[in-house]
Fold this sequence. Notes:
Strand content of chain B: 25-35%
CATH architecture of chain A: Orthogonal Bundle
Shape of chain A: flat
Number of helices of chain B: 10
CATH topology of chain B: Rossmann fold
CATH superfamily of chain B: P-loop containing nucleotide triphosphate hydrolases
Oligomer: heterodimer
CATH topology of chain A: MetI-like fold
Number of strands of chain A: 2
Helix content of chain B: 25-40%
Radius of gyration of chain B: 18 Å
Structural class of chain B: alpha/beta
Bound molecules: adenosine-5'-triphosphate, magnesium ion
Radius of gyration of chain A: 26 Å
Amino acid sequence: MTTTDSSTPARVPTGRRRIGDVIFANTASGAGALILLILAGVAAFLIIQSMDSLRANTVNFFTTTDWNASTREDPAFGVAALAFGTVLAATIALLLATPVAIGIALFIVYYAPRRVAALLGYIVDLLAAIPSVVYGLWGVVFLVGQLRPFYDALENYLGWIPLFAGPVSATGRTMLSAGLVLAVMILPIITAMSRDVFHQVPQANREAALALGATRWEMIRMAVLPFGRPGVIGGAMLGLGRALGETMAVAMILSPSLVISPFLLQSGNQTIAAHIALQYPEATGYGVSALIAAGLVLFAITLAVNMGARFIVARRKEFS
Amino acid sequence: MAKRIDVSGLHVYYGDFLAVEDVSMTIEPRSVTAFIGSSGCGKSTFLRTLNRMHEVNPNARVEGKVMLDDLDIYGPDVDPVAVRREIGMVFQRANPFPTMSIYDNVIAGAKLNNQRLSKREADEIVERSLRGANLWEEVKDRLHKPGAGLSGGQQQRLCIARATAVEPEVLLMDEPCSALDPISTLAIEDLIANLKENYTIVIVTHNMQQAARVSDRTAFFNLAGTGKPGRLIEMGDTNRIFTKPEKKETENYITGRFG
Ligand SMILES: Nc1ncnc2c1ncn2[C@@H]1O[C@H](COP(=O)(O)OP(=O)(O)OP(=O)(O)O)[C@@H](O)[C@H]1O
Ligand SMILES: [Mg+2]
C-alpha cells in the first residue's frame, strides 16, 4: 500500500507509470528508431561506396547510356539507359497488372459465389508467395515463346504507334515480355491488398448506394472504389516496388543492351537490378563502386515513387 | 408523387429463421406511418422488405405480397434497383459517402438516374433538396467540403436530402433520430412534417413521444415470445393507438408495462 491515509482507497491512480507500459513504449520507439537507422545506414553506405567511381567517372553519370566501369582508370559509365529501362519495365507491369488486380479483387469480394471466392482468395495468396526466379523461368521457357503471334498482331495493327513499331524481336525477349512477366508477378500482391480493402468497405456505405437505386456496379463505383482507393494505391506501390527491384525474372528474359529504346517489341533495354546482378561477378577496378552508384539510383527511384504515392493518397485525406 | 403501399400476408425469413410473420397493412400516401415495438421484434427487417433492401443479405427471403399502388414489387420481372429508386431509405446511423463532398453526396443518386445532368440542373437539385432538408442555410458556403465533416444531425439531414434528391414516392426511415440530440431530433421531426406533403413516409422509432408527435398512423409490432417471430399486433390512427388501444399488449407497451 502506498496510501498513507487509510480512509482513501488505493484504487486512485498514483501517476506512477506501470512497468509494462514503460517496456512496451521503449521497445516500440526503439524499433522505430532502428528502422530509421537502417535506412540512413544503407543510404550512407551507398553514397560513400559509390563516390570512388563517381569521382573518377569521365562522363556524365546521369546522361550517359554506356557502361565501361571495370577499368582501373578513366571509367566511363552512365545510368541513363538503365534507369529508363527500370522505370519502363515497372510502368508496363503496373499498367497491365493494376486494372486486372482490381477486377479480380472486385470479383472475389462482390461477384463470386462464396465457395469460389474463398478458393480464389487462397490461390491469390499462394501466387504471391512464389519466388521470382520461378516466374522468370516460366517467362523464359514458356511465355516468351508463346508471345510471338501476339506481338506480330500488335505490330500489324498498332505498328503506327512508335511503342509497337517493328521489327518484332525473333526471340520474344523484349521489354514487353519482361513487363508482362513482372505484371504476372505483382498481380497477386496488388490483388490481395485490393481485396482486403474492398472487404473493409463499411456496409453502411454500400447500403447507402443501393438504397439510392444503384446497381451493383454503380454501388462499386460510388462506395467501394473511392473508399478502397488508398488501399489499391498502396498495393500498387508495393507491386511497383517489387517490379522496380526485380532482378532474376528480368535478367533471365531481357537480352540486354544499353540503349534508350521506346520500342517495346524489339530487343534492347536493361534494368538497374538485372544489370547489377549480371555485371557484379565480373566487376573489377571501378566496377563494383559503379554498380553501387547504380544501386543508389534505384534506391532513389523507389523512394521517390513511394513518396509520390503517399502524396497521392494524402491529397484527398480530407475526404476519408 | 407519393404512392400507397399495400402489404398482404408477408413472412420474412433469415435462412430458416422466421423473423416476421404474416404482416398485412396499408400505408397511406402523404402521411407518416410510425412503426413501434420492442427491440428485436422485426421492425427493421419488415421495413427493409418494403424496398427490397433485405435482399442485400443473401440469406434473407420473403413470402407474401407488397404492392406499390398497382405494382407488385416482388413480381417476377420487377428489378429491385427500380424499386429502390421509387422507395428511398434513411438509415439509423447517418451514412454520407465519406469520400464525397456535401454537393456530391446530394447529387449522387440523381446522377444515377440521369447521367447527362447539366451543371445548372444539378445545382438546382442540390439546392432544392438541401432546402427541403432544412440544411441549405447551414452548408451553402461549404458545399464542396466533405459530407463527413458535418455534425451528426447535419449528416442525417444530408442523408435525407440525398434520399429526396431522387424524388422517390416513398421514404423509409429506420430510427433516423436515435443517434441525435434533442435539438437535431426536433429539426428532423419538423422536416418530416414538411416532407409528408409530398411523400409517403414510414418511420421506425423507439421514442413513443416521437411517434405521437410526427405520425398519423401507428403500427405496433411485438414478439409472441423469445425465439418466436415478430408480428403486427395492431395498427390505426396514432391518436387512437395511444389513447384507446384495442389490444392489451399495445396498452402494456405504450404505458411501459411489459409481460
Ligand atoms: N442479418 C440478420 N441475420 C439473421 N437474423 C437477423 C438479421 N437481422 C436481424 N435478424 C433477426 O431478426 C429479428 C428482427 O430483427 P430486427 O433488426 O428487424 O429488429 P428491430 O425490431 O429492428 O429491433 P431494434 O428495435 O432493436 O432495431 C431478430 O430476432 C434478429 O436477431
Ligand atoms: Mg431496428
